[in-house]
Amino acid sequence: MKSIHQTPSLFQVAEISISYSSKVKPSERPKIGSSRDACEILRDNWDEGSIEHREEMRIMLLNRMNKVIGIFLVSVGGFAGTICDPKVVFQAALKANASSIILAHNHPSGNLKPSEADLQLTEKLKKGGLLLDIAVLDHLILTEEAYTSLADEGLM
User: Fold this and answer.
1) Which of 69, 71, 108, 141 is 20 to 30 Å apart from 48, CA to CA?
2) Would strands 56-62 and 100-106 be described as parallel, antiparallel, or unpaired?
């Protein structure tokens, strides 16, 4: 009796599926005209109490008219920091077909001053955005009571 032994193909690959679904009509999306607008929308969508509890990185995804497509949670860290992988940031932006993004993270300590790591990350993401034609418009640092806009402070 002959044994049939199948050898796996050398060319088998995983199938990738990319999807985006919005439940908000384009006419109902809020428009961002200032860092204050972005901060208010971000605060409304931040988990209650977590601004002082743990550091999180989020991005606000915008269309060509600066209307909010959505907000994406990039990472959750501890009290002293979180990791932001640029590939994750731009994966979400590309999936949503965003024209621009606003970076945002919180400082549970209440310190509004951007760290050197914050400034370096912002610069790195701006450069990545240039390659992909996705503008990085701002980077907000939120605390429970206030916020800092790197764009407003001339740090972008």
Assistant:
1) 69
2) antiparallel
Question: How far is residue 51's CA from residue 142's CA, in Å, rounded to a whole number?
Answer: 8
Q: Is residue 3 packed enough to be buried (19+ CB in 10 Å), middle (13-18) or exposed (0-12)?
A: exposed
CA distance 102 to 80: 22
CA–CA distance from 154 to each of 8, 75, 125, 139 (Å)?
Answer: 57, 26, 16, 11
- Give the Å distances, CA to CA, from 6 to 3, 9, 10, 15, 76: 10, 9, 12, 22, 45
| Domain 26-149 belongs in CATH node 3.30.565.10 | no
Query: Per-domain residue ranges for the chain?
Result: 26-149
Quickly list H helices, the chain. Answer: 35-45, 86-95, 116-132
Q: pTM score, two decimals?
A: 0.85
pLDDT digits (tens, 9 = 90+) for 1-25: 555 666 666 777 777 776 677 788 8
